[in-house]
Amino acid sequence: MNNNSKNIIRSRDLCFVEEYYLQRSKQYLKPNFQVLATYSIDLTPELIFNALSKLLLANLQWSLQVHPKKPSKEEHTYNLISEYNLNDVLEFTESPDIPLEELLVSLVNRRYKLSCSKPLWSLIVFNSRTLIFVADHLLGDGTSFANFHLEFLRFLNDKDSSSTLEYIGSESTIFRATLSGSDISPKPSDIIDYTPCWYFLIYVILKLVFPVTNTLYTRLGIANEFQDFSGEKLVVHKSNHTEKLDFHLKIISIPSDKIQSLIKITRMHKVKLTSLLIHLCQLSLYPITENKDVVFIVPTNIRKCIDEKKAHGLCQDFSSKFGLYMSGIHFELPSVGSANHKCQFQWKWVHYIQSILWDQVPMSHQAMGLIQYINSKAFLEYEAAQPRASTFEISNLGSFKIDPTYEIQIMDMTFNQPLGAVGSCFGCNVVGTSNGGVNMCLTTTKGLDHQTFVKYTEGVEKWINFILENH
User: Fold this and answer.
1) Residue 293 class from Cβ within 10 Å (0-12 exposed, 13-18 middle, 19+ buried)?
2) 201-211 residue pLDDT tens
3) Which of 24, 188, 368, 387 is the most exposed place for a label (fewest CB within 10 A)?
């Protein structure tokens, strides 16, 4: 811990990545982020206070607030909030008759005020044991929000230390900055080199020159069955954008025994579960997309790109558990209903998708680096006025092993980031735990009718069962 109070860093400028995510929130283009966990005991206010106060003191990321950088109104700074209370971040909902999906839909338009003394997140205890962590995406990525629950669980089970703050009810001070001697984390751009290399820039330029991928492959004479593109894409025009976002949501739960079977099957075929799920969703979308090409987005975790030595030089207590360390890849696949494929499950598809992920994921941080060359506000305003550019987004946070020696356990975890006013037409958010299997949150915008959404969700369940029954 840094004990020289004169050198403690309590504020910093936002980097270009954070400014981009801030603009998405300010323009109401993306909803909040939701990761929820069901615990093995009832979560009382005092129990939450004792664990949460220790977590917040050890991790300053969750006590940052955004302010305009004077005299500029286009740039912003992070400042550490001096203190706030338990009732600023915690609420309880007891509604046994309300489905979880309905509650999550009702939370999608919750916004957090900037330039104030309250944080950019909140906790909702649903039916005593489910803790819903809702936050502005600016504060972190999906891994960060899942790690919040893992850290919270660790402090729940910590019997050796007590909070430095006193619990006096809902108005208890839950965080006080003067109790911490740590720096806030450095800018992501100070510890990750986002600069695109020359061959990545050539790749981007070629994609712009040849937006229909098969045109390039055909001209080069290297087209194959996986470049059997039609040149048409699913076009979903948006209604006039408002501050209110709306969507359909369906949670598909895969029990531990079935998910273990799926993982065993993927290992036999030397592929990752994400690649299999992409192909199953590709098949599920066929009744909707028909012979149109499908554009996929896969968010990526870029923590491996962090220069740890530099990070610890800038912040002695640096940890990559919490922060905005993500990018994403885009790729295009032809219809599974083409003459070559006939809408059948094929492992060669999964292997091909896996090869795309292996090729593109290591360079994905460079794609995020392109943002520094554009005006984020103008770009997002333009994107919001265009038809949706991609068909499907899948984000898999992975499955987290819960320490079996803990007295208190996480029994289940769910990850939901609904689609916003920009991005894909369909989405799938995946997370799992060693106790509760895997939950898939399937979403689509209300721009598509409910029956279309039902076709999609039924298709996903059908193809998952097909894999389990035929292997």
Assistant:
1) buried
2) 776 666 665 55
3) 387
